[in-house]
Amino acid sequence: MNKSFVLASLVAGALSSLSASATAQTLNVYTYDSFASKWGPGPAVKANFEKECGCTLNFVSVDSSVGILSRVQLEGSSSNADVVLGLDLNLMHKAEKTGLLAKSGVDTSKVTLPGGWHDPVFVPFDHGYFAFVYNADKLKTPLTSLKDIVDNQHLRVIYEDPRTSTPGLGLLLWMKSVYGDKAAEAWATLAKHTVTVSKNWSDAYSLFLKGEGDVVLSYTTSPAYHIMEEGVTKYKAAPASEGYYPQVEVAAMMKHAPHPKLAKEFMAFILTPGFQSTVATGNWMLPVIKLPEGLPKAFASRQRPTKVLTLPAAEVASHRAQWTNEWLEATTR
Amino acid sequence: MPGKGYHLATWFRLTPALLGLLVFVLVGAASLAALLRFSQFESWSGYLHNIYLWRVVRFSLWQALLSSVLSLLIAVPVASCLTHRQFKGRGVLLQLFAVSMVVPTIVAILGIVVVYGHSGWLHALFGVETPLYGLLGILLAHVFFNMPLAVRLLLQSYGLVPSGQWRLASQLGFSRWTAFRLIEWSYIKKALPGAFVLIFMLCFSSFSVVLSLGGGPKSSTLEVAIYQALRFDFDLNKASFLSLLQVSICSLVALMVYRFAPANQQDVSLLDARLYPLKDSILALFGDCLAMALAVFLVIPPFLAIFDPIFSVTFYQTLMADATWQAVWVSLKIAIPAALLSLFLGGCFGVLARMTMDRGRLAFLSSKIEQLGSMILMVPGLVLATGLFLWLRSIGLSSLSGYWVVVWVNAVMALPFVLRALMPVLYQQEKRFRNLYTSLGIHGANRLVIEWPLIRKSVSQAFGYAVLLSLGDMGVIALFGSQGLVSLPLYLFQLIGSYRLQEGSCIAVILICLCLLLFYLSVRFIGGKTHVKY
What we know:
The complex is a heterodimer of chains A (333) and B (534).
Chain A: H1 2-18, E1 26-32, H2 33-36, H3 42-53, E2 56-62, H4 65-75, E3 83-88, H5 89-97, E4 101-102, E5 123-135, H6 146-151, E6 157-160, H7 166-179, H8 183-192, E7 194-198, H9 201-209, E8 215-219, H10 222-230, E9 235-237, E10 246-254, H11 260-269, H12 273-276, H13 279-283, H14 313-332
Parallel strand pairs in A: 1-2, 1-3, 6-7, 6-8
Antiparallel strand pairs in A: 3-10, 4-10, 5-8, 5-9, 5-10
Helix pairs in contact in A: 5-14, 7-14, 8-14
Chain B: H1 4-13, H2 15-36, H3 44-48, H4 51-84, H5 90-99, H6 105-116, H7 121-126, H8 135-158, H9 163-171, H10 176-204, H11 208-214, H12 222-232, H13 236-260, H14 282-306, H15 313-320, H16 322-356, H17 363-375, H18 381-394, H19 402-440, H20 444-472, H21 475-480, H22 488-497, H23 501-526
């Protein structure tokens, strides 16, 4: 008797916590979990948007940005998603080809990204630049370029696997745009002093924080986290004289969105301060519009790209498998 | 001789168990079929010619073989020592051994790195720099996860040794070595193939450990390729090819092992499980110390490293945070129903397997049923979940809450462990009571009532393992996770994913403590106060 009651209440609790998405005025946004978590931008975005729209914003979080795409692909046209938020530059081409996304209709002229933004489907919501982060207390010789990192045989390097993580793929493209046809040799040189190539950013960064590597592939904005949240200034992003490879995170509206009007409103909301002011200290990335109040002080010391390298999305899509194989060949030789 | 009517009635009574088995098989088959619908078989031959793929397969096999053999080699003397010797901390050690398997991979990796890594304790204390990244790191991690599991599985078979044999050994003045050769070995060798296959499969499909500690893409497993195909490329065709390949290879290995395994002959033992002291010697003591030292050295330091943040302020803050307790609640909400379901499924399998045991033409079924339950380990959780997701969608149940999918997948993933824990003792009871049951006409639940005092210890182990595995699960929940469903491992992953390694480490400690507590409670309340005594 007692036991079945406990079980029933367990079940009821489980169901009630999941059926929140059933009501009509709820906008479902699929995103990755660190965006929706309590320290991510999610809660502030939710509060700000709900003030404007008089609706409920519900985040459905998946483990990673690639996870978002495979989730909506799995669900197909029967998906409850109105908006997908958290795809990146290199997933755009693939995402658009699924035919599940609709044109946003958002005016992106305010976007301050280098080269502006001209995509009719995707709206950028934050951006950053890949960079190798190091501990300045331990590493005395300053690094100045990507070439420094590749060639310095004493440097213990940790990076992410391009087959399983977005930063890993970012490095693959960065290397390609810097080294071109010589990328394979550069990878082979790097492999000689690579500590390990991990599954995702979390594993790599944790290993780095435990002192296993001298440098780890992360973002130019990573040091800002340590300054603001921990008051630690020893972590620095290495400058790259060849230029930086960007990561731009984007959102898109679903073609079969159950609430198209709300979805459109949300897409436009992305480029307003109500959303953009949350990304710096929530996601530790940079906003894509000019904010009236500017960025927190900790971001002032970040590396600013003198040159931004970007490979065209179509080229990335058609060559990704080939470049991944090139990396694999070179590093397992 | 029972007549035909008897048989019909027997089978009728087995309906619930058959239904359980049927649901398991049907859901499994439907999920697999849903995934296979996307396959284009003509492209498969192309995949087969990929050189890198075969290198990956070879490496997977090699590291899994080494890991499981090493784990078992250490586990056998350790289990023998733990059976014969009582010492301070033995209980705590056994508890730790139960949870090592479910320590979240990233936490275990960091624990191992803190001990053996470049800035690790070993380096700081003795100046020894271990070439951690490579095969050594992978083996250290796999032994950390699986050797304790092997010890616990072997201890179970020690529990099946009838006390009469120990008494005799004691009276005849057997040395430990003679007792091992003449008594223990014949029980252990029955458990070894099953334990080997279990650990082999866990290591074969290991993912994060192999990537992070393997030192680069040279060390990689099929699971990495499956993940890439399923998540990064969303290539269901390739994913199903790779999963089938993995299942085929694992089945082949399992078949080979079971071929050499002794037939499943259970002994009728006396009910008393008392142990009689054997003749001790310096040599035996030395051997025991050596084995225990090795086991302790491999398992304890990483645990100490993991428990390191326990005295920090952050730990206190994490303990006070609402989010932590919400995650605990979600974890329990998933783990307890999943474990109950797993136990139920295990019961269904167990009842059917023991019914067919030694029944002429049906006899071969008993081991087949048992192996069917373990097969699930060969299929990656992510593949299982994706298939299930596709199938539910195709039959119009896409709105079925992710919660139940997570519970189901966790339950079936825990099934192999439940079966490992339950089967030996179930077979033993069958052997012991079958004729009695038949002649007295005792059926169904009544048998459970009679056997309960004898099997409750194993049931508690099975339940404990199922709870632990579901508590520690990350893969399945990540695919179906939504805002309301942040379990402890997922919360940990989120924290580490946003620079908060310190808080993440604290959550890991809380998760492990929760595991310890639940396992203790399970053993204490389901397993009863002490060993079964008569």
